[in-house]
Amino acid sequence: MNDMPQYFNEAVNVATNQADNGGQDAPANHTEVEINQLHRSFSPSYNIPPTRTSLIIYKSNENPTKYVLEPSTFGLLPFWAKPNDASAVSRQNEKGPKYSKEIQGLAARYFNCRKESLDMSVWKSVRHSRCVVPIEGYFEWQKSKADKIPYFVYSKKRPLVFLAGFYSHNTNYRGKDPEYQDSYLSTFTILTGTAQKTDSKDLSWLHPRKPLMLLPGTRAWDDWLNPEKEWSNSLVETCLETHKSIAYLDLTWHTVNKSVGNPGFNSEEAIKEVKNSPQKTISSFFQSAKRPISDGSPQKRIKRDEANVKEEASVKKEDNSVKRENSVENEVSVKKEDSVEKEENGIESEKEDIKKGQQ
């Protein structure tokens, strides 16, 4: 956090000087940055989900030329919200501070503000508390029917990019728990807008929405952070215009480790490029590749055994057929012999009868 003023000066003054000098580098100025450490400790993170602490930058109401750098919770707790439920969230083997369940519930609900929803009462209440969120980049998941692949989006020319946001200072929870010793609880939300193919930088292939960015040294930057600038439609059109904004022009991206979906995966490895292979679908598990079968393989032997069994069965059927034919022939032969004997006996008896008659 102590190094952030230097990074911020580099990002702000380089951009400002280039804008003032037709894109050419010029001697750097120095921007005054006040660090508002508050009571909470802050540790840099490569993976910040809602309800975790990040940094915000806004301009002081007392001195509009001075920037204030402040640790703040990702997810807005409106300044008018009051403590009602003292329930605490569980933190591994211990409980969190009182009212933490209520606070985190609101933070999880209000961590993004859609540009299309600016007329909602919760956002109207913070229109004059405008800030930027300095980040190296952000994670976004590209979804398809077969898989989800995470990307890290960042600037290829600047160390930081700045997201447009609202912040809130809530004093109603002060003293309700030993952890709430600051004069206020600082929280923020990030503004988002639609991503379209016709934008200055097409991000619609990645996700239908994108965070709204501001570039130091531009009119949009100055108007958004000016605490004396009244809210108006023209302010929205100037500062939150997404289709032609030059703040997106230097963006690039690469795929990263899928473990970024786990907040515990928090190291420099989280933003390093990783080639993600497509995930296999369920049907692919049932479509095994056809491989040549060797003569000595069990599958080949089984097939030969099956063929031998079928051949033996066929031979047995033929033997049975021959036997049945032989038995039929024998029966016919016996019947013929019987009939011949009967005929001969009949003839002999007739001869005897004739002889008796002659006598």
From TrEMBL:
<keyword id="KW-0238">DNA-binding</keyword>
<dbReference type="GO" id="GO:0006508">
    <property type="term" value="P:proteolysis"/>
</dbReference>
<dbReference type="InterPro" id="IPR036590">
    <property type="entry name" value="SRAP-like"/>
</dbReference>
<feature type="compositionally biased region" description="Basic and acidic residues">
    <location>
        <begin position="303"/>
        <end position="359"/>
    </location>
</feature>
<dbReference type="InterPro" id="IPR003738">
    <property type="entry name" value="SRAP"/>
</dbReference>
<keyword id="KW-0190">Covalent protein-DNA linkage</keyword>
<keyword id="KW-0456">Lyase</keyword>
<protein>
    <recommendedName>
        <fullName>DUF159-domain-containing protein</fullName>
    </recommendedName>
</protein>
<dbReference type="GO" id="GO:0008233">
    <property type="term" value="F:peptidase activity"/>
</dbReference>
<dbReference type="GO" id="GO:0016829">
    <property type="term" value="F:lyase activity"/>
</dbReference>
<dbReference type="GO" id="GO:0106300">
    <property type="term" value="P:protein-DNA covalent cross-linking repair"/>
</dbReference>
<feature type="region of interest" description="Disordered">
    <location>
        <begin position="287"/>
        <end position="359"/>
    </location>
</feature>
<dbReference type="GO" id="GO:0003697">
    <property type="term" value="F:single-stranded DNA binding"/>
</dbReference>
<dbReference type="Pfam" id="PF02586">
    <property type="entry name" value="SRAP"/>
</dbReference>
<keyword id="KW-0645">Protease</keyword>
<keyword id="KW-0227">DNA damage</keyword>
<comment type="similarity">
    <text>Belongs to the SOS response-associated peptidase family.</text>
</comment>
<keyword id="KW-0378">Hydrolase</keyword>
